[in-house]
Design a protein that fits this description.
8 strands, two-stranded antiparallel sheet, six-stranded mixed β-sheet
Length: about 170
C-alpha cells in the first residue's frame, strides 16, 4: 500500500462523508498537459474554467491573459503600481469574474461576512450540474458533486465554499 493509499484509508476511517462518496474526486488537469505544458503551476482559475466550461485549456489561458493585459489592476496609494494577472501563476477575481460573465456564468454566494461556513465542498451540499467553486485561495471545478482537479481540495469534506459560478440552466438544488 502506498503512502497516498494509506492516507486515503485513514481519512475514510474517521470521516463518514468520505465513506458515502468514494468517488468524490477525479484527477483532471483541464487539458494542460495536452496543450504542451509541464510541471506544477498556480493555474487553478484556468484549469477550473477549462474543465467546467468544456473549453480548450489553451484558449482559456490566452483569453485570461488578454483580459489581464486590457484591464490591469492599479493599486491605490501614493505609489501607483500596475499588477497583471497571469493565467499561469494567478488570475485576479476582477479578470476571471468578467471572463465568466461574458460566457454566461453567474455568481452565487454561499457565505456573507460573519455568517460562518454554510456550504462545504461536498456532493450533498452543492447543486448538481457544472460548477466552479471558490474556496480559500483556489477555484475548483465540480461536476455533479465530483471534484475535477489535480488534487483533492475538499479537506476531507471540511473545505468551505465561499460561492460558485454556474450556468443559469444548471442551477437546481
Amino acid at each position: 500500500m502506498t503512502d497516498s493509499e494509506r492516507r486515503a484509508e485513514l481519512a475514510r476511517s474517521w470521516n463518514p462523508h468520505l465513506l458515502e462518496q468514494e468517488n468524490h474526486w477525479i484527477y483532471d488537469d483541464g487539458g494542460r498537459s495536452e496543450a504542451g505544458y509541464k510541471g506544477y503551476t498556480g493555474d487553478c482559475v484556468t484549469r477550473a474554467i477549462a474543465i467546467a466550461a468544456e473549453l480548450p485549456y489553451q484558449s482559456v489561458y490566452d483569453a485570461l491573459n488578454a483580459e489581464a493585459k486590457i484591464n490591469p489592476i492599479r493599486t491605490r496609494g501614493p505609489v501607483k503600481r500596475i499588477h497583471r494577472s497571469s493565467a499561469r501563476t494567478g488570475v485576479f477575481r476582477k479578470h476571471h469574474d468578467q471572463f465568466l460573465k461574458n460566457l454566461g456564468w453567474i455568481w452565487t454566494p454561499t457565505m456573507s461576512i460573519g455568517s460562518g461556513c454554510q456550504v462545504h465542498l461536498l456532493r450533498e451540499e452543492l447543486p448538481s450540474g457544472r460548477l466552479i467553486c471558490k474556496v480559500s485561495k483556489h477555484l475548483v471545478a465540480v461536476i455533479d458533486g465530483v471534484i475535477h482537479d489535480t488534487h483533492d481540495y475538499s479537506r476531507d469534506g471540511t473545505r468551505c465554499v465561499y460561492g460558485f459560478y454556474s450556468l443559469p440552466e444548471t442551477l437546481h438544488v
